[in-house]
Amino acid sequence: MYLFEEYGFHGVTVNQIVEKVGTSKGGFYHHFTSKDELLYVIHDTFITYALKKARIANETYQSPTKKLQAIIKSFVKVFDLYKPHIFVFYQEHIYLKDNYKQLIKDKRDQFKQIIIQAVREGKEAGEFRKELPTEITGMAILGMVNWTYKWYKQSGNYTIDEIGDIYVDLILHAILVKDACTESTYEQLLIEKPFFMR
Amino acid sequence: MYLFEEYGFHGVTVNQIVEKVGTSKGGFYHHFTSKDELLYVIHDTFITYALKKARIANETYQSPTKKLQAIIKSFVKVFDLYKPHIFVFYQEHIYLKDNYKQLIKDKRDQFKQIIIQAVREGKEAGEFRKELPTEITGMAILGMVNWTYKWYKQSGNYTIDEIGDIYVDLILHAILVKDACTESTYEQLLIEKPFFMR
DNA sequence: TCATACAGACCAACTAGTCGGTCTTATGAT
DNA sequence: ATCATAAGACCGACTAGTTGGTCTGTATGA
Known about the structure:
- The structure is a homodimer of 198-residue chains.
- Chain A has helices at residues 2-7, 14-21, 25-31, 35-60, 64-81, 83-91, 98-124, 134-146, 160-175, 178-182, 185-189.
- With 198 residues, chain A is an all-alpha fold.
- The longest helix of chain A is centred in the middle third of the chain and has 27 residues, at 98-124.
- The first copy, chain A, is elongated and about 65 Å long.
- The A-B interface holds A 6-8, 10-11, 91, 94-95, 129, 131-133, 135-137, 139-148, 150-151, 157-158, 163, 166-167, 169-171, 173-175, 178, 181-182, 196-197 and B 6-8, 10-11, 91, 94-95, 131-133, 135-137, 139-148, 150-151, 157-158, 163, 166-167, 169-171, 173-175, 178, 181-182, 196-197.
- Chain A binds a DNA duplex (30 and 30 nucleotides) through helix 3.
């Protein structure tokens, strides 16, 4: 699992995998039909979990602003739980076989749509700036958060929860309408106080 | 070149490369010592160019706000010129041999530091919000911009220049101090009018 | 005539996947 | 309790196919 993070999917042989896990070639192919299936399983466990969490966050709040916060905060937590999965997910997805790739793409698109939809609703509700294009803004948010997998270390100066607070703060300042940003109403929009305001 | 984008570095054989380019195994190995060297050359041509552009942008402006804008706008333009390179750069760097990897990492770090330094200066100059942690904010900006390679198509609804405008707008709203954001001074801080304000 | 650019058959090394066989455990009849 | 039986879990030497890289040879032009 951590092997992939260092050498990539093609840089790790099945022999290395089974050695690390303490099983054998036979054992491996008893559980997986192919190395490609393992790749799929890794992808699927992560995206399924992330999608579930995003849906819950999405349904818990009414206001788009709070929705967005909850989605981001819950997603960011996944980095602590599924770091190696996430690495494989963003790094090795090109190597998925076509049928597997489609299954993953569907779930990935659903996740993307949850974010974009939140932005759309925010604009309609007058909470987010209307001059921002919905899709690009959504992708910008996604990019900022997703990129975390490239540099986040659990041993770093900030916990993943703190990083999540910063992201939420950056994003809200970026997209909220002026009034919401300047007045003291900003704090009322938060679902929880970020660490740097405590 | 475009082959890598579809199949990944390990998914493309040297035979496929030479066939596509219209040369031969002998021709290929006359110009490159190994497939790994080709991978390095692709990495290096991109990061060298991007770094040069960032340095120019960095030296052209004094105000950190304008610096940051110029860096982002110039970097985003690279997506049109070096799309396939960028894909390889972010997707296949784990497969670089150690000595090559180090050379690339050095330049990559330099690029990262230019952005982080701009954020630092902005905070010191009182232009950016002081409560934001410098490194995380820098990485958030980088992530938002870099992620573009995952979804940007030249045939899309927005040009890369327009996308750059949006990024700059999002980032500035995210990190500028309140005053700069609310008052009409915002427009004065821009190095050029973004497309959606024209 | 020599250096450089290129061609393509060939090779050594490596890897995903197989397959005959062994070990473990659950069951059920005695 | 004991043992026969069977099914599933697991083992690892082996194979067929692939791939990066080599090497000998040829063409071109200065």
